[in-house]
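#random but structural
TW: two for the price of one
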Amino acid sequence: MPFPMLPLLSLLVLSSMIYSGSAQGPPSPGYYPSSKITPISFNQGFKNLWGPQHQRIDQGSLTIWLDTSSGSGFKSLHSYNSGYFGAAIKLHPGYTAGVITSLYLSNNQDHPGNHDEIDIEFLGTTPDKPYVLQTNVYIRGSGDGNIIGREMRFHLWFDPTQDFHNYAVLWKPSELIFFVDDVPIRRYPRKSEATYPTRPMYVYGSIWDASSWATEGGKYKADYRYQPFIGRYKNFKLQGCTSESSPSCHPPSASPSGFGSLSPQQFRAMQWVQNNYMVYNYCHDPRRDHNLIPEC
């Protein structure tokens, strides 16, 4: 029997308590890379990959959903060697434990068993706890049974179920930068060939059941009494270098001209997020074998 529905007012109060930190957002990064890139519609940059009956396109925006029969996923039309990849995403409210909504880069179809991956994943939750945004990097098969994840996880300073927010990754030959509403939350520099993804990748998105690990290590599972679980995407942004691009192609800049990486103002904003909202850093996990993660 389903749990009794909480009164709407109680849910609103609970939501405001969970995201009470939203009153004070991060300091301004001073530069907004997403504003430099023209959004495209779904069909201009992507196609359905699986679960077509669980995908709806309306005026260039995309809705995908998970129920007992299937989830859904999509894939970019082109692969990229570098670039800026993002979308505005609105997450499903309420009980979403076990459910992952994602936007990521991967070459697992080209290199099965030996692939690279750059992840933005929203780990579903129970109504009394906030979503977790997981960023992750896999290099050359470290996600294929030989799990060497490079996870950094964050809570957000707003409720991601109330409105669309912009999430993106900038992949350059020298560094990866993850953004939330143009605020950098994580920088992953290239320290060696062995710890950095360099092979072409496609851009993917999906909603799927990851009950075995997604919410508190698998403690809470997907509960299909609350189906369907819905992910909404719009304002897709793809600007990068493909295999067909000229040798002079380079990815967009993360910062104002004159800075090779983030500006001091952007670094301060990133540090604020990490100080206040980061909930896990693989480099600081004593259970990890640091011989496998030399970049730490």
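TW: number two ↓
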Amino acid sequence: MARLWLWAGGAGLFLALLVLRSRFSGCRVLQEFAFRIPRRTEEVLYRLDVGWPTHPEHFTGTTFCVAVDSLNGLVYVAQRGDNIPKVLVFTEDGYFLRGWNDTVDTPHGMFATSTPQEQSIWITDVGSVVGTPGKRGTGLNPLQFDSPAELYVEDTGDLYIVDGDGGLNNRLIKLSQDLMMLWLHGENGTGPAQFSIPHSVTVDSSGRVWVADRGNKRVQVFDKDTGAWLGAWTSCFTEEGPSSVRFTPDGKYLVVAQLNLSRLLVVAAPPVGDLGPCSVVSTIQLADQVLPHLLDVSAETGAVYVAEIGAKQVQKYVPLEGSFPSFR
């Protein structure tokens, strides 16, 4: 297994780019975990796959994040705990492949990229990193981080990082493939382009960057090329702010996790050029204290994988037949 590590100045973060190869193993057993359908009249778009994964006993820590490599049909899970594998690798069918713990200290967010030649996993680590120069901070040269929550990597290699899960920073940073800063928004506050715990970031096919501004109970939207602020959604998040955001592969819906409500929202995506009002089309109410932290969506199947820090597991929700005609 070849490894290439990328260190970004500041002990609060490393982005580990791991090139992996794997093979199948495992046998099937069923896992069951109840969730409640909401009482409101909404569309039911997903069902829980109670058989995923086939061996849930591999979840031995607190599962903070999940990333899907849709090209190769792999699901990566990062968990926290002592003397356990920090990263687990499953197939999308639920078979456990392997785990490791020699590259990650305290994982928080992760993202998978893949080409026919290489599989890569990017991880934000909010713990200490032995051998990394510098310290936690707000500096830009060299670039420093403190409690970075998550990142999103485009096919071009450009990176979007939300830095501020309760630490010194509250900012959104865009870096080029060679780690040059392209633009930044960042200070604590409630105004446009200000943040309070920016916790998740994603990019849609129209060139808009969506940030879960958790502490401000809103999703903020930016132009990916210029960084210009385009607007915000607040009406869907009056009870609690969003903790995770990902689009469905067809771009029609934004899937949002709300941590303390143990709830997933499926929100209609707006047309190009107009954010419009926030409209929830479907809700998945999980059991109490499940605490969905971060999620990812398979670009191939549309399945939603949810890392739950309360239940200490990842669950898979699959689209109902006919809900997403473009998925199989």
